[in-house]
Amino acid sequence: MTDQPEKIPQHKHCRNCGKAFTGDGLFCGEDCRGSAGSEAKKKIRKLFLVWLLIVGVTIAAAAVYYMAQ
Description:
The protein is 57% helix and 6% strand.
């Protein structure tokens, strides 16, 4: 008797939750599709705030440097 590995049907993994699913698209359902969009917006907002902080610190450092001369 040979031990054959169990066959797994062709599937994809959801980009949001990682759950395996069959069918079309990138997400397992509408809930994951909606929450992925809101999470992407949150990440973009955070990156924009970090960018603003870096620009602000750079401007402040340049102002202090030039005032010290």
